[in-house]
Fold each of these.
Amino acid sequence: MRCLRLVLLAPLATAWVVTRPTRRPTNLAAKKKSRKLERLQELKEVSGAELDATEQWAANLESRLDAAMDDGDRDEKASKVLELCKEENRDFDAIDAAVKDLAALPAYPDIGFRARGDWRLVWAKSDEGVGFIGTGLHRVPLANLEDQFLSLEADGSCALTEVIRVIGPFPNVKNLLTGTSTVGPSTLRLTYTKVIDGTGAELTSSQARSVKLRLAALSKSLLVVAAASIDADDWLVFEREDDFADALERLRVPPNTPEDEEEDSGGFKMPKMPWDKKE
């Protein structure tokens, strides 16, 4: 019986040796092509695009994803700028160097999309820059600039909101400049078509204007522009504001509501300020 078992097992062992699979040569070109097709399909699924998406579209979307992967370095440099701007004794040379270090990174391919949102001014290198982008009404007697916000919307509209603190028993004053914006790789143009001051008066003669800024740097949390007509490095540093409505409420000024929603704002009416013309 033992001999019979050995006889039966011998052919099976031989058969396994004979039919053992052999490793086929690797076709690198085919593997690369397969990975490329998988990558393209992944990009299509992420964006919800049609199946006939062009290679140019795929390249553009892939560059966006690559830019997002570089946000770690960008965020680190942006944090450095904010840290320097928020110091009590600011070092202008250090801020210049930090902004230029951030600006040296490649610009976002979809910079217009990335710039959307609400931004809060955290530091300005000069008062001229603040007046260049806003109304300059914070320079009148008994007034100081409390806050300034820049809002860039998806439809191309924009708003510059100034909150001015008045010395004495007076409420904060809000000036609102609205219009359209154009965002380019290195340029931000704001075209103000309507300006309403804190008393509700519309300013058109000099305030309704076009403002061209140099877009120096942009990250998820930071927007740096310069008043190009004043000084090449006249930085205005904005930090992203995630709750704009709450920020205005804390500053005790009314929200930015459209004209047809004014009745819902509680009937707020700004009192006369010291600099208003007497009737």
Amino acid sequence: MTDEDPKRRGGARQMRLIVEVEDFEAAVAYFRDTLGLGEEAAFSGDGDERVMILEAGRATLELANPAHRRYVDEVEVGRAVAPRFRIAFEVGDVNRRTAESVEAGAGLVAPPTETPWRSLNARLDTPGDLHITLFEELD
């Protein structure tokens, strides 16, 4: 689908998720330096006001009803753990990225687990108080 496609004309061109984090430095160190998201822009203002925009590749919005959220939690973790919002990042080597994440201070919720939809998924609680999935497509 191109920008010229009538379905895209006037529609969203970017999705940006804005997250307030108490420990800005720890969150930047994790998402930029450990997970490898590219720094697109950074700004500061009066006092201690700061923001950093990190590029994470293609963005999608996945809408799931409560039953589906519980199913995915059961498959990936074995119990319900995810809050209402969970961020998922596709990576090239989920085992390596999971180990690096834990070394950088993320809490391991569930190790990489193969799912019925043929991906290898790990769950982590990261600096910035975000619950995430790291996943690697196996097909």
